[in-house]
Amino acid sequence: MGLLKKKHDTAGQVDKSRLPRHVAIIMDGNGRWAKRRGLPRTAGHKAGAEVFRRIATYCKDLGMEYLTVYAFSTENWKRPAEEVSAIMGLLHQYMLEAIDSMERDQIRLRFLGDLSAISPELQALVERTNAISERIQGFQANICLNYGGRDEILRAARACASEGGEITEEQFAGHLYSAGIPDPELIIRPGGEQRVSNFLLWQGAYSEFYFCDTLWPDFNESTLDQAIIAYQQRERRFGGVK
Ligand code: FPP
To answer: What is the pLDDT along the chain (242 residues), one digit of tens a residue?
Structure first.
């Protein structure tokens, strides 16, 4: 390997003047990736967490503002206890590393979801990363943790109802976990399935969707470029005509 890092094959093909501000990803396919290698499913999640680190850095370097990933859904508690604890362990490890590196890397972190159900240790780490994020400007990675789109909408509806009066879209959006974050222009689902799986139901109303067969642990800079290039070739009409 030379001193210069080899550029990936799609490098330079993305139009940086028309980047989505916000890309969201359903990190699917970890289990199948591991199974194909004769490894436990948890090995797929470990590889998936590595890919998240790499893709977050790439999004920031490209000049995007937000990356949101689906790390753990409100339904994922149904998985075997060993798998749940492995995913929580990976998040724990990531947060510990982030506490040391996020200021240097200028990556803000925000966790979206019902965090009351996660362990007190993880909650404390979330608090610490939140405090560091306040000192950072620029790129933000949002990690959906114990997140469900319907749960988020129900909570916002309850909060609005308790405030009384006419409910506006802005008021409603202000009670979502994603309050203050612009909606994602592009939602990517690797792993071959073509469904939303309770992810960003409100925020994705006008998002462009990109599905690909690549399993998340095999996802790389080039796969992301391809998704952005496809997005840049689409015409977004938001219900109107052009
Ligand atoms: C979906 O693949 C993946 C998950 C439910 C977990 C994703 C979690 C991580 C990648 C670790 C999170 C860590 C950080 C640092 C963000 P699957 O298991 O459903 O795959 P399959 O469809 O092949 O079974």
So the answer is: 445 666 788 878 999 999 999 999 999 999 999 999 999 999 999 999 999 999 999 999 999 999 999 999 999 999 999 999 999 999 999 999 999 999 999 999 999 999 999 999 999 999 999 999 999 999 999 999 999 999 999 999 999 999 999 999 999 999 999 999 999 999 999 999 999 999 999 999 999 999 999 999 999 999 999 999 999 999 878 888 87
Give the list of residues 6+ apart from residue 15 with CB closer than 8 angstroms, or none: 232
Which residue ranges form the domains of the chain, and what is each CATH number? 19-148+184-231 (3.40.1180.10)
Q: How many residues does the chain have?
A: 242
CA of 29 to the centre of ligand 1 (A): 7
Residue ID of nearest Cα to ligand 1 atom 14: 49
pTM above 0.90, yes or no: yes
Work out whether the CA dihedral 53, 188, 156, 160 comes out positive or negative. Answer: positive
CB 202 within 8 A of CB 217: no
**Partner residues linked to 67 by β-bridges:** 23, 141
Determine the residue of 27, 72, 110, 129 to mutate for testing ligand 1's pocket, defined as the one with the most ligand atoms within 8 A of the Cβ atom: 27
> Distance, CA 197 to ligand 1 centroid (Å)?
13
Protein residue with least CA distance to atom 13, ligand 1: 49
| Distance (Å) from CA 136 to ligand 1 centroid | 28
Residues with catalytic roles:
28, 76
Alpha-helix runs per DSSP H in 188-238: 221-232
